[in-house]
Amino acid sequence: MAVIYTSGQGDARTVSTDEPRLATSTLDRITPGVPVGTRPPDATVGIVHLGIGAFHRAHQAVFTEEAMAAEGVGHWGICGVTQRSRGVVDQLIPQDGLYGVLERSDRGVSIRVVGSVLEVVSATEQPELVRSRIADPAVGVVTLTVTEKGYRRDPAGSLDLRDPAVQADLADAPAPVTAIGRLVRGLAHRRVENGAPLTVVSCDNLVANGAVVRALVADFCAALPGAEGEPLWDWVRSSVSFPSSMVDRIVPATTDDDREQARRLLGVRDHGLVVAEPFRQWVIENDFAAPVPAWHRVGATLTADVAPYEAVKLRLLNATHSLLAYTGALAGYATIAEAVRDETLAGAAASLMAEDALPTLRCPDDLDLHDYQRSVLERFANPALRHRTTQVAMDGSMKLPVRLLGTVRDRLRAGAEPRWAALAVAAWMVYVAQERDAAGHPLPVDDPLADRLRLAAAGPDGGLVERMLDVEEVFDPELRDSTVFRALLTDGVEELLVTR
Ligand code: CS2
Predict the structure, then answer these.
(1) What backbone phi and psi angles, to 5 degrees, belong to 2?
(2) 250 Cα: distance to centroid of ligand 1 (angstroms)
(3) Which of 381, 413, 421, 418 is nearest to 104 (CA)?
(4) Average of per-residue pLDDT across 323-342
(5) 71: exposed, middle or buried (Cβ count in 10 Å: 0-12, 13-18, 19+)
(6) For 384-430, how does the pLDDT look when each residue is reduced to its tens digit (9 = 90+)?
(7) Which architecture characterizes domain 307-498 according to CATH?
(8) Residue nearest atom 3 of ligand 1, based on CA coordinates
(9) Ligand 1: which of 317, 321, 388, 431 to mutate, most ligand atoms within 8 Å of CB?
(10) β-strands 99-105, 274-276 pairing
(11) Nearest residue by C-alpha to atom 9 in ligand 1
(12) 5-303 under CATH 3.40.50.720, yes or no
């Protein structure tokens, strides 16, 4: 039988196979010994997740499955909502929501089947179902992984009211297209239907992600006609909590080779497979409007203050990831593991953490920041993961301000020269300007601001830094006007630019 797999990166290939496909009816065909998550017959939906991509399936869905098992309950099943494409619907519906997580480390590979996703809904095709799920009193939690760009913020961090998609959602389009639009329309329905309290947990790499979502919901309500917006926001303020959370697990895009290996390990085909490293971490602010799954019993940390954990993760791990992605891609390395094996790049990564980021951090009680820095480089060096530099390089205009520019700002204010953080930003500028590596191979600029960035990058090499610093969506006036930062960027760009 011939099956077309469409990979997350958009390439389609024909894979010939005879095995049946993973589903509840084929569980008895799975290779004995493969762990299969328990799904009680009376399992029901208690969580709505907006943005059911690979990261959610490898992270929160796994924590949730284990939390249900630890408590012996089945009422925290997940309704996963796809944001744009119906790819995940096609992957998971024929599989009754079941999928494998293929864990890769230098010690080998293992697979498990996760059963916590009970329902997958396309937000564009079934907007009413999304709305009624968010309103369902049996649902106590809405989680989100919609990526940095999915929040649609303006340069000041507020809801971007000039964005046509935001405008359409405010005008009460029957099918909202933004994550915040979908959330608010669901909340409005919930207020009217039952008013049951709800916890909304952002799981994206943003500073203070809970406060961000809350503020965006407030902005959305404020932009609605008064008769609609005011009572809604009054209710949200009293009945909905928005804890911040820090999430961590490296989840590269799944490839056809991964699916082929999973097929051999599982004995059945899995179109919904995700790949991950063994490590996973979740730190959640202890601010719940209603009961939540027992995530704390299966490794999640509940704390009154997520901020120091979040800063550690964004400024050490994600910042270094971006440095390696841009410098590595420019040097011709396809994966993060290859980039970090280059001594010069590994040295730059270590210096970015130790010299630039570390002095800006407050250490959480239960973390040793020296071990943490070492473990970041070890995790990046995992040769089995094949995390592509171009995947991490995506959406730089959205990621840089969150993971690098806070460090730059703090160090400049302290009178220091954040050389390595500036090198990462310079590498991004060169990546955007050249769109090819040192050997001339093309590099994709995949970014919501791609056109704007290309326009800024065009022109004589000598003015590249100036022109890029003028992109106000990325650089605020303080950074744009800093002579120290400008000089560091100019040095970095000169070092990296291949003369055109
Ligand atoms: C990466 C992250 O793609 C990226 O920008 O830095 O997705 C990273 O793999 C995760 O945050 C790890 O938790």
Answers:
(1) -105, 135
(2) 6
(3) 381
(4) 98
(5) middle
(6) 999 999 999 999 999 999 999 999 999 999 999 999 999 999 999 99
(7) Orthogonal Bundle (1.10)
(8) 392
(9) 321
(10) parallel
(11) 250
(12) yes
315 Cβ inside 6 Å of ligand 1: no
CA dist., res. 156 & res. 85, Å (int): 29
C-beta neighbour count of 265 within 10 angstroms: 17
Q: Is the CB of 320 under 6 A from ligand 1?
A: no
* Burial class of 262 by CB neighbour count within 10 A (0 to 12, 13 to 18, 19+): buried
Contact 41, 229 (CB under 8 A): no
Q: Is the CB of 325 under 6 A from ligand 1?
A: no
Query: Is the CB–ligand 1 distance for residue 313 below 6 Å?
Result: no
108-124 b/e (C-beta count within 10 Å ≥ 16 → b): eeebbbbbbbbbbbbbe
Name the pTM for this structure.
0.94
Residue nearest to atom 11 of ligand 1 (CA): 248
468 C-alpha to center of ligand 1: Å?
24
Residue 499's pLDDT is 55
Beta strand 198-202 with 240-241 is parallel
Cα 488 to ligand 1 centre (Å): 25
Question: Pairing relation of β-strands 281-285 and 77-82?
Answer: unpaired
Structure confidence at residue 1 (pLDDT): 28
**Where does the chain hold its CATH 1.10.1040.10 domain(s)?**
307-498
Q: What is the pLDDT of residues 69-100, one digit of tens each?
A: 999 999 999 999 998 888 999 999 999 999 99
